[in-house]
Amino acid sequence: MVFGLFKKKEPVKCTIKPTGEEFTVPPDTSLMKAAFAAGIKWPHSCKVGSCGSCRATIVEGEGEHPSGICDPTTLLHPEEIQKKMVIACQWYPSSDVVVEVEVGKEGDKRGPI
Ligand code: FES
Fold first, then answer.
1. What is the pLDDT of residues 21-65, one digit of tens each?
2. Is ligand 1 within 6 A of the CB of residue 58?
């Protein structure tokens, strides 16, 4: 049986902490791309997973960085990964999420560790 194999993906809701701003993340859309579409000033620079300035902490909810040639988690310290910090331009939520990020500020562009 393959029930659920072809299940249609649904949009999820993102709530930003501490501002309380909310936006919808369509299926197969990165957290940061959906934030931009909603007019939110998410900290960023490269938009391709190489600078780290879009870092955010997932307070609630689930998602993943896609597997591929580039591993965006190389931009995070191990302790940041433990605290559920993600690279938002390369992270795809799979449930409603609450995210801590400093909207409107310039991110820390430290690059790969
Ligand atoms: S904007 Fe550079 S890593 Fe996300």
1. 999 999 999 999 999 999 999 999 999 999 999 999 999 999 999
2. no
Give the chain's domains with CATH numbers: 10-100 (3.10.20.30)
Question: pTM of the predicted model, to two decimals?
Answer: 0.88
Count other C-beta atoms under 10 Å from residue 26's C-beta. Answer: 12
Q: Are 96 and 12 in contact (CB under 8 A)?
A: yes
63 C-beta closer than 6 A to ligand 1: no
Q: Which stretches does DSSP call E strand in 4-72? A: 12-17, 22-25, 55-60, 63-64
d(CA 29, CA 19): 22
